[in-house]
């Protein structure tokens, strides 16, 4: 089904946004062959994304390929099905990219969610489901001779940088009492879930050291996608990068350029503090 010489990369949530751009960057490589396992909650969306990539990268000289699969990391049955679908034809996975995730801090309240529902949904997707997916796919990763495990985190997860009040998400309210009405750009559930994800990744870094698995956390910075709501075009106007920028960083990590920074959060501008 795929060349055994290709590096097999599974990217969760890769039918659009940063995940799609990661697949795009790898498939466009002229130096190395990749087999991309592109996933989406809906198979039809994964297939559409894969077809789009195939049309775009028609003249790959490296023999790179892309295959579409359905995956909902919140559903153990979906993870088990994907495992079986990947194990039979491929036999291994060289790189797991945990990209799937979401922020509900804005869209949740708009949909009428309670505070408990907002936090539970955020943690279940970004932390618990990412853990479960990774745990279930470790056997395939360990069949690789060059295993890599990546987690997409966020700048807002840094505990150190919470003291930088110039950032809009760190600006303290001026009013006293409760509830607050001037909290401003409040993404507390999302940022807390990504801080928890950082600890999860650090744990994998320690647990899998003897197996030679290289673990990285990726800080994509502020990116102009549909993530968390809002118009990507407007985000660019306020300084957000296009998805190809973090995708290029991920490609560098996968190709070993930042192995000296394993177990750390790597961003566009260098190491991000915990």
UniProtKB/TrEMBL annotation:
Q: Which domain of life is it from?
A: Eukaryota
Gene3D superfamilies recorded for this chain?
A: NAD(P)-binding Rossmann-like Domain
Mind telling me which Pfam families this protein's record contains? adh_short
Alphabetical keyword list: NADP, Oxidoreductase
Q: Does the keyword Protein biosynthesis apply?
A: no
Q: Which family does it belong to?
A: Belongs to the short-chain dehydrogenases/reductases (SDR) family.
Name of this chain's protein: Uncharacterized protein
Please tell me the species this chain comes from.
Answer: Kwoniella shandongensis
């Amino acid at each position: 089904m795929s060349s055994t010489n290709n590096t097999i990369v599974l990217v969760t949530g890769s039918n659009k946004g940063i995940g799609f751009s990661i697949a795009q960057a790898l498939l466009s490589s002229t130096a190395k062959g990749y087999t991309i396992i592109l996933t989406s909650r809906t198979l039809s969306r994964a297939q559409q994304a894969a077809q789009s990539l195939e049309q775009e990268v028609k003249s790959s000289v490296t023999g790179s390929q892309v295959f579409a699969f359905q995956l909902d990391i919140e559903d153990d049955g979906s993870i088990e099905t994907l495992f079986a679908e990947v194990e039979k034809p491929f036999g291994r996975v060289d790189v797991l990219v945990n990209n799937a995730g979401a922020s509900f801090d804005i869209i949740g309240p708009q949909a009428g969610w309670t505070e408990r529902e907002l936090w539970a949904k955020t943690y279940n997707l970004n932390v618990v489901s990412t853990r479960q997916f990774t745990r279930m796919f470790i056997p395939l990763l360990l069949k690789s001779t060059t295993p890599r495990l990546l987690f997409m985190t966020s700048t807002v997860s840094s505990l150190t940088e919470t003291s930088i009040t110039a950032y809009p998400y760190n600006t303290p309210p001026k009013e006293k009492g409760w509830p607050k009405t001037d909290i401003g750009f409040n993404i507390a559930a999302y940022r807390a879930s990504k801080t928890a994800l950082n600890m999860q990744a650090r744990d994998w870094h320690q647990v899998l050291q003897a197996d030679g698995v290289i673990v990285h956390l990726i800080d994509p910075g502020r990116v102009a996608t549909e993530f968390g709501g809002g118009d990507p075009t407007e985000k660019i106007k306020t300084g957000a990068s296009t998805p190809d920028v973090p995708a290029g960083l991920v490609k560098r990590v996968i190709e070993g350029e930042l192995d000296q920074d394993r177990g750390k959060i790597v961003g566009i501008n260098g190491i991000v503090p915990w």
